[in-house]
Amino acid sequence: MPMQIDQNALVKKLGTSTWLVGLLLTALGALGIMLPAVLSTITSVFVGWVLLFAGFLFGFYSYQHYSGAFIGWLKPAVLIITALIFIFTPIAGIATLALLASFYLFTDAFGSFALSHDRYPKASWSWMALNGVFSLLLAIILLIGWPETSAIYLGIFIGISLMFDGFALFMLGMSIKKAD
Q: Which of 34, 76, 147, 179 is geometrically suited to a Cys-Cys bond with 58, CB 3.0 to 4.6 A?
Protein backbone atom coordinates (compact mmCIF):
# COMPACT_ATOMS: atom_id res chain seq x y z
CA MET A 1 0.00 0.00 0.00
CA PRO A 2 1.51 3.37 -0.99
CA MET A 3 2.29 5.85 1.75
CA GLN A 4 -0.30 8.64 1.97
CA ILE A 5 0.99 12.20 2.32
CA ASP A 6 -1.11 14.74 4.16
CA GLN A 7 -1.01 17.65 1.68
CA ASN A 8 -2.25 20.24 4.20
CA ALA A 9 0.45 19.28 6.71
CA LEU A 10 3.08 19.41 3.96
CA VAL A 11 1.96 22.88 2.89
CA LYS A 12 2.10 24.12 6.51
CA LYS A 13 5.53 22.57 6.99
CA LEU A 14 6.92 24.22 3.86
CA GLY A 15 5.64 27.59 4.95
CA THR A 16 5.30 30.73 2.93
CA SER A 17 9.05 31.39 2.87
CA THR A 18 9.36 28.78 0.10
CA TRP A 19 8.89 31.53 -2.49
CA LEU A 20 11.87 33.40 -1.03
CA VAL A 21 14.13 30.34 -1.25
CA GLY A 22 12.92 29.85 -4.82
CA LEU A 23 13.66 33.46 -5.67
CA LEU A 24 17.18 33.20 -4.21
CA LEU A 25 17.89 29.97 -6.11
CA THR A 26 16.62 31.55 -9.34
CA ALA A 27 18.89 34.55 -8.78
CA LEU A 28 21.84 32.26 -7.98
CA GLY A 29 21.15 30.28 -11.15
CA ALA A 30 20.99 33.46 -13.25
CA LEU A 31 24.26 34.66 -11.71
CA GLY A 32 25.79 31.26 -12.47
CA ILE A 33 24.73 31.54 -16.11
CA MET A 34 26.32 34.99 -16.31
CA LEU A 35 29.50 33.79 -14.57
CA PRO A 36 29.67 30.08 -15.42
CA ALA A 37 33.39 29.64 -14.69
CA VAL A 38 32.87 30.99 -11.17
CA LEU A 39 29.93 28.64 -10.53
CA SER A 40 31.93 25.70 -11.90
CA THR A 41 34.85 26.55 -9.61
CA ILE A 42 32.58 26.85 -6.58
CA THR A 43 31.00 23.50 -7.48
CA SER A 44 34.39 21.80 -7.85
CA VAL A 45 35.65 23.14 -4.52
CA PHE A 46 32.38 22.20 -2.79
CA VAL A 47 32.56 18.64 -4.13
CA GLY A 48 36.20 18.57 -3.00
CA TRP A 49 35.24 19.49 0.57
CA VAL A 50 32.50 16.83 0.59
CA LEU A 51 35.04 14.24 -0.59
CA LEU A 52 37.54 15.41 2.02
CA PHE A 53 34.96 15.04 4.79
CA ALA A 54 34.07 11.57 3.47
CA GLY A 55 37.76 10.66 3.35
CA PHE A 56 38.23 11.63 6.98
CA LEU A 57 35.12 9.68 7.98
CA PHE A 58 36.37 6.58 6.16
CA GLY A 59 39.80 7.18 7.67
CA PHE A 60 38.31 7.22 11.16
CA TYR A 61 36.39 4.03 10.35
CA SER A 62 39.56 2.39 9.02
CA TYR A 63 41.48 3.44 12.11
CA GLN A 64 38.80 1.85 14.28
CA HIS A 65 38.47 -1.42 12.34
CA TYR A 66 41.39 -1.89 9.91
CA SER A 67 44.29 0.00 11.43
CA GLY A 68 46.84 -2.66 10.46
CA ALA A 69 45.54 -3.51 6.99
CA PHE A 70 46.68 -1.54 3.94
CA ILE A 71 43.45 -2.27 2.06
CA GLY A 72 41.43 -0.53 4.79
CA TRP A 73 43.31 2.71 4.15
CA LEU A 74 42.98 2.63 0.37
CA LYS A 75 39.52 4.20 0.14
CA PRO A 76 40.22 7.06 2.58
CA ALA A 77 43.48 7.80 0.76
CA VAL A 78 41.77 7.92 -2.65
CA LEU A 79 39.00 10.14 -1.30
CA ILE A 80 41.42 12.55 0.37
CA ILE A 81 43.75 12.75 -2.65
CA THR A 82 40.79 13.33 -4.98
CA ALA A 83 39.42 15.95 -2.60
CA LEU A 84 42.72 17.82 -2.51
CA ILE A 85 42.90 17.80 -6.31
CA PHE A 86 39.35 19.21 -6.54
CA ILE A 87 40.05 21.87 -3.88
CA PHE A 88 43.52 23.02 -4.94
CA THR A 89 43.24 22.52 -8.71
CA PRO A 90 39.57 23.20 -9.40
CA ILE A 91 40.17 23.11 -13.16
CA ALA A 92 40.89 19.38 -12.89
CA GLY A 93 37.78 18.96 -10.75
CA ILE A 94 35.68 20.88 -13.24
CA ALA A 95 36.93 18.74 -16.14
CA THR A 96 36.19 15.60 -14.13
CA LEU A 97 32.70 16.77 -13.21
CA ALA A 98 31.98 17.71 -16.83
CA LEU A 99 33.10 14.28 -18.00
CA LEU A 100 30.92 12.59 -15.36
CA ALA A 101 27.99 14.81 -16.36
CA SER A 102 28.42 13.84 -20.02
CA PHE A 103 28.46 10.13 -19.09
CA TYR A 104 25.31 10.67 -17.05
CA LEU A 105 23.64 12.48 -19.96
CA PHE A 106 24.60 9.70 -22.41
CA THR A 107 23.13 7.14 -20.03
CA ASP A 108 20.01 9.25 -19.56
CA ALA A 109 19.62 9.63 -23.33
CA PHE A 110 19.82 5.91 -23.98
CA GLY A 111 17.48 5.21 -21.07
CA SER A 112 14.99 7.67 -22.53
CA PHE A 113 15.32 6.09 -25.97
CA ALA A 114 14.70 2.66 -24.44
CA LEU A 115 11.59 3.91 -22.62
CA SER A 116 10.41 5.63 -25.78
CA HIS A 117 10.87 2.43 -27.78
CA ASP A 118 9.05 0.47 -25.09
CA ARG A 119 6.12 2.90 -25.09
CA TYR A 120 5.82 3.22 -28.89
CA PRO A 121 3.11 3.67 -30.31
CA LYS A 122 1.32 4.53 -27.03
CA ALA A 123 0.75 8.10 -25.92
CA SER A 124 3.74 10.13 -24.75
CA TRP A 125 6.42 7.97 -26.38
CA SER A 126 7.56 11.01 -28.36
CA TRP A 127 8.20 13.04 -25.20
CA MET A 128 10.63 10.40 -23.96
CA ALA A 129 12.31 10.35 -27.37
CA LEU A 130 12.62 14.15 -27.31
CA ASN A 131 14.09 13.98 -23.80
CA GLY A 132 16.60 11.46 -25.12
CA VAL A 133 17.54 13.74 -28.01
CA PHE A 134 18.10 16.70 -25.66
CA SER A 135 20.15 14.60 -23.23
CA LEU A 136 22.23 13.26 -26.11
CA LEU A 137 22.82 16.77 -27.48
CA LEU A 138 23.88 18.06 -24.06
CA ALA A 139 26.28 15.12 -23.63
CA ILE A 140 27.81 15.76 -27.05
CA ILE A 141 28.12 19.49 -26.34
CA LEU A 142 29.97 18.72 -23.11
CA LEU A 143 32.34 16.32 -24.85
CA ILE A 144 33.07 18.33 -28.00
CA GLY A 145 35.20 20.94 -26.27
CA TRP A 146 36.24 18.87 -23.28
CA PRO A 147 38.22 19.82 -21.20
CA GLU A 148 38.72 23.38 -22.50
CA THR A 149 35.03 24.35 -22.41
CA SER A 150 34.17 22.39 -19.25
CA ALA A 151 34.08 25.42 -16.96
CA ILE A 152 31.70 27.31 -19.23
CA TYR A 153 29.29 24.49 -20.04
CA LEU A 154 29.24 22.98 -16.55
CA GLY A 155 28.52 26.39 -15.00
CA ILE A 156 25.76 27.09 -17.50
CA PHE A 157 24.15 23.67 -16.98
CA ILE A 158 24.29 24.04 -13.18
CA GLY A 159 22.96 27.59 -13.46
CA ILE A 160 20.04 26.46 -15.61
CA SER A 161 19.27 23.65 -13.17
CA LEU A 162 19.33 26.08 -10.22
CA MET A 163 17.07 28.49 -12.11
CA PHE A 164 14.47 25.80 -12.84
CA ASP A 165 14.64 24.49 -9.27
CA GLY A 166 14.26 28.02 -7.97
CA PHE A 167 11.39 28.83 -10.30
CA ALA A 168 9.54 25.67 -9.26
CA LEU A 169 10.00 26.52 -5.56
CA PHE A 170 8.97 30.13 -6.20
CA MET A 171 5.75 29.01 -7.89
CA LEU A 172 5.10 26.51 -5.09
CA GLY A 173 5.64 29.23 -2.51
CA MET A 174 3.32 31.61 -4.32
CA SER A 175 0.59 28.98 -4.42
CA ILE A 176 1.08 28.33 -0.68
CA LYS A 177 0.90 32.06 -0.03
CA LYS A 178 -2.36 32.34 -1.98
CA ALA A 179 -3.83 29.36 -0.12
CA ASP A 180 -3.19 30.99 3.28
A: 76
